[in-house]
Amino acid sequence: MGIFHWLRRMTNRPIRRAGIAAVGIIAVTASVAGCGTSSGSANNGTIVVGGKNFTEQLIMSNILALLIQHDTNLKVVMKDNLDSNVAWNAMKNKDVDVYVEYTGTGLVNILKDPVTTDPQKAYDEVKQQFESKYHITWLQPIGFNDTYAMVMQKSEASKLGITDISQLAQHSNQLVLGADQDFLTRNDALPAMNKLYGTHFKAEKPLENGLKYEALVDGKVDVVDGFSTDPEIPEYHLVVLKDDKHLFPPYYAAPIIQDSTLKAHPELKGILDKLAGKIDDAQMQKLNDEVDMQKKTPQAVAKSWLTSEGLI
User: Fold this and answer.
1) Are residues 40 and 108 both part of a single domain?
2) SS3 13
3) pLDDT tens digits for 242-257?
4) Mean pLDDT of the chain
5) Which of 58, 64, 187, 211 suits 302 as a labelling partner, its CA being 20 to 30 A distant?
């Protein structure tokens, strides 16, 4: 289950989540090498903010950078729009001081530990092991959980009285599922849901990621697999069904920061912990929507949100 989710996140992210030009606060680079800064520069008054190459991450890297810039006199350099593996290697090699990571990615992909469906256990595990193995601190979770989700049209779910996957299972023999081929066939995806929840859909249609929501809105399918912070959810008035039996692992987002950076600038912990619990799934959907659907820049969306929250 954890490996499946990670592979989808790394290799099959919808196109809209990769390849958006990042807008830097002080300086922007698409690669880690050659920027002339590293975590050691934290002692010289420079903080390097990293980020991955999809919308949510571009927003979050700008939020981190703007907040640090506002609350300190530190110089902020950005190294965002990075492939996930590149972002982690930059952090591990101390070329980045801070970026937002996900508990599931930290646990399964980086630490190679077994998946857990307990959010607090996942967080406690990555926090303890990153500290001991990498001298990296996990700060407080931001609030949203970008994990797998089963999504329906709000009107259809309401008509059938479906709010969670258990209720979906009760109606599944009347419904058509649209999902990518991996979700339909891997033992840790649909087969696992069938086993845990007892889902048995009327039909299963393989769909490319970019076509799933279109098919759902057009009524060609009744339910699709997605991610819980997808911007199409608010854009098309869709609803995420509660994973009431905890099939999908937690992918809660939190800033991770070099211990050496915190030692040089201990005030950063309090500054970045201002984000704790501030953005839930629905809020992240809306922020992603502003970039992907409304075509605002990640920097503009980050600045607007921070201002609305009174953080800058």
Assistant:
1) yes
2) coil
3) 999 999 989 999 999 9
4) 88
5) 211
